[in-house]
Design a protein that fits this description.
Layout (H helix, E strand, L loop, with lengths): L8 E20 L1 E12 L5 E8 L5 E6 L4 E6 L5 E2 L4 E2 L5 E9 L5 E7 L2 E2 L3 E3 L6 E24 L10 E11 L10 E3 L30 E3 L9 E7 L12 E10 L7 E6 L6 E7 L7 E7 L10 H4 L3 E5 L7 E13 L5 H9 L5
Amino acid sequence: MVRNGARSLRINSTAETGQALGAITTSTLVLVWRFYIRFASPPTSDCMLCYEGVGGGGNCGVGFKSSDSSIYAANNVSTPVFGASGVPVTTGIWYRIDAKIDSSGNPRLTDVQVDGIPCGQNSLSLASSSITQINLGSSASETFDIYYDDFIRSNTAGDYPIGEGYVNHFVPTSDGTHNIAGADDFELTLTGTDIRNGDNTAFEMVNDVPVDSSLGDWINLTAPPNATDYVEIVFGPAPDILVPTVAPRSVEFIAAFHAAAVQTNNLRIAYRDNGGGTQDDVRNATIGSESIIYIRKQYAAIPGGGAWTPTAFADSRARCYSSDANPDPRVDSYMIEAEFPYVSLSSIDRKINRNVLLRM
């Protein structure tokens, strides 16, 4: 069951813990987020649906009260404490949940909206501390079957409520303009087949959906003689995703990679907007792993600065380099998850909305 895009998160637990954990790269005193939720089977007891997992033990966030089948601002995973009022929900409907936690003072304040309808604020007497993790589901023993989709978060209080939107994924759809000095610099997996200037085959090594979890095919950086040599791929909509007609609010770049051996080497991956000539290093470091490693980086603006536009996002690019390709660095997958607002109801946007998904 998906609201948008290709996949959603399903948590289907029976008298057991069911949750997805997510660390926040930069700890924050204010956390704002939005997701959509659909109940196939609602919780059979009071529980948390989404909450901050670290930050002084408050476990503040979005709660469900079984006695009135309603969503509340709440705290405490073990025995949820609810705000003064909630919003009733039922099965088979996608609901938009907007939430904000302010842990900058004592008490810690939690605000929640359901499809724009405010719940009563939850107040918890707790010393100020940074939030470093947000969890979907519950760490307590619960029974429910719930779908989550179109999640996005912010550290900016003024972003609350984030409001309507959707997340779509974008994958490599063609090669860009490579900068390759000669033979045996970049190859297709272990085939010995060179990637050459003017080729259009490298993107097929890194376009898996979902991103690779086991070793299959990759761009093999065998021996680029110059640190400025690179293979470039171009992103486009994944299957069944339409070309966006509005600018994204947030773009998250995801990459998977490994190395031929664990000794010191170097892999540089850069993300580049279309046409602006600006790029940013997503990674520039040694790998040290023969198993796949994942990395992600969020871009609220174009890599070189400035607001996203549909043109800058369309056909954006990734480049891989190496200043030390011994042992060989190997790029397994690229993907972008981008969040878009509902701002237009053109015929194309209506079609996107009917498809109605970054990030975790």
